Amino acid sequence: MSIQENYNIVKSRLPQHVELVAVSKTHPVSAIQEVYDLGQRIFGENKVQELSEKYPLLPKDIQWHLIGHLQTNKVKFIAEFIDTIQSVDSEKLIREINKEAAKHNRTIKVLLQVKIAEEETKFGLETEEAKILYQKYLSGEFPNILITGLMGMATFTEDENQIKKEFLNLKKLFDELNQQQPLETLSMGMSDDFPIAIECGANSVRVGSAIFGRRDYSN
Ligand SMILES: *Cc1c(COP(=O)(O)O)cnc(C)c1O
């Protein structure tokens, strides 16, 4: 199937209120341009190097989301143009993003990435850490950051109940933080599990292979 057909199918499966982040990692600029021309404006990449190479070659009204683990020493390479960093998994990182955003006189949107998967995952805040970080944010510690929501990834499994359970845990935390100060975005769900994520309350999904086709190497 063509990228256009894939894109239309994915779009048709998303309710109006659900935002689509088209995950273009490992795919060429020409494929991104093709999806852009279909009307898509939000794209996600997981590596600073790859994003920095693609950014200058594509239209400037793309809202770029970083969705992969970010090392503090690389924040400076994307601070000038990144729209949202979905993968904030430490206080050290949020401090660095705040500092670099200030240098460029801008505000960078971030999502707190929370560890919800039962399987061993390297990255993500524990629920308690996320709560503490949100308190610090609410007390005004990061003036050049806008925490707009939460991001999570479920265990890679066929067990739908397991996936559902994990997504619902993140939804619960979202509701809790949302009561203190409203949050916009609950980012959960990828190509294989986005319908479940939406059922569980996601209003933003990160979809790669269902649009662009399979990646040549695991990433
Ligand atoms: C690669 C990636 C996605 C998209 O995965 P697909 O299965 O290709 O849809 C979503 N979120 C994150 C964090 C990713 O790294």
Can you walk through the features of this model?
The longest helix has 21 residues, at about 160-180. It is globular and about 50 Å long. The protein has helices at about 5-10, 30-35, 50-55, 75-80, 90-105, 125-140, 160-180, 195-200, 210; strands spanning about 20-25, 40-45, 65, 85-90, 110-115, 145-150, 185-190, 205. It is α/β, with parallel strands linked by helices. The protein has an eight-stranded parallel sheet with strand order 7-6-5-4-3-2-1-8. The protein has one domain (about 5-210): TIM Barrel, CATH 3.20.20.10. It has nine helices and eight strands. The structure holds pyridoxal-5'-phosphate (PLP). Pyridoxal-5'-phosphate binds next to strand 8 and helix 9. Pyridoxal-5'-phosphate (PLP) binds near residues 68, 153, 191, 207 and 209. Keywords: Pyridoxal phosphate. It comes from Chryseobacterium nepalense.
Short description:
This protein has nine helices and eight strands. With 219 residues, it is α/β, with parallel strands linked by helices. The chain has an eight-stranded parallel β-sheet.
Strand content: 15-25%
Q: Would you identify the CATH H-level superfamily?
A: Alanine racemase
Strand order of the largest sheet: 7-6-5-4-3-2-1-8
Q: What series of H and E elements makes up the topology? A: HEHEHEHEHEHEHEHEH
Largest sheet, described in full? 8 strands, parallel
Number of strands: 8
Give the helix level as a range of percent. 25-40%
Number of domains: 1
Main structural class = alpha/beta
The CATH class turns out to be Alpha Beta
